[in-house]
Amino acid sequence: MPPPAPGRRTGIGRHKDGKGVRTLAVKAVGWARSFPISEGVRAARQWTAAHLASLPWNATAADTVHSVLLCVSELVTNAHLHAVGTAHLVLTWDGRCLHVSVADGDPRLPRSRNTGADAHATSGRGLGIVTALADSLDVHACHGGKAITACFRPAGGPDPHGADLRTG
C-alpha cells in the first residue's frame, strides 16, 4: 500500500504533513444522554453527579458541584415543562470549564423575566438561578429547537492554559 499523500489523514488523531507524523492531543472529555419526561429530573441529577465524580476537582470544589447539580435540575425541568419532551443533556470538561448544555425541541428562546414582578412567585425563576450560579450562559437555536449552555469554572480546579486569575 503506498503512503498517503502529504496533508492526508492517516488515522484518528494523526495526520501526515509531509515532514513526519504529528500526534494531536485531546483536550476535552464529555458525556451525553437524553432524558424523557418519564425518567424525570432526578435521573438527570444522578447521572450528572456520577460523571462529576470522575473530574479532578470534584472533591475540592463542592460548591461548584452543588451549583452544577442545581442548574441541571433547573435546565432539564425547563426543557420538560416548556418543550414538553425529551431533554438532551451534554457535559463537557475542557480542562478549564465544565460546559452543561441542555437542548430541547422547542425553537422558542426563553424570555427575560422581571425579577421584581412577583416576589412570591413559585415558578419562572429557573433561568435566573442558572444565570446567578454559572460563570457564563449561552442560549442559541439549534436543530429545530434550542440549547442552553452554562459554564462552570471550579475555584482551585486545574487550568492547563495558565494560572487561574480568579480569586476565591
Which whole number gives the mean pLDDT?
81
| Strand adjacency order, main sheet | 4-5-6-8-7
What is the CA-atom radius of gyration, in angstroms?
20 Å
Strand content: 25-35%
Low-confidence stretches: 1-16, 159-168
Give the helix/strand class: alpha+beta
Please tell me the CATH architecture by its name: 2-Layer Sandwich
CATH fold category name? Heat Shock Protein 90
What's the name of the CATH homologous superfamily? Histidine kinase-like ATPase, C-terminal domain
Give the distance, in angstroms, between the N- and C-terminal Cα atoms: 58 Å
State the total count of DSSP E strands.
8
CATH class: Alpha Beta
DSSP helix count? 3
The count of domains is: 1
The portion of residues assigned to helices is 25-40%
Largest sheet: 5 strands, antiparallel
Shape: globular
Structural account:
With 168 residues, the protein is α+β, with helices and mostly antiparallel strands. It has a single domain, classed as Heat Shock Protein 90. It has 3 helices and 8 strands; from the N terminus they run ββββααββαββ. Strands 4-5-6-8-7 form a 5-stranded antiparallel beta sheet, covered by helices on one side. Strands 1-2-3 form a 3-stranded antiparallel beta sheet, with no helix packed on it. Residues 1-16 and 159-168 have low confidence and may be disordered.
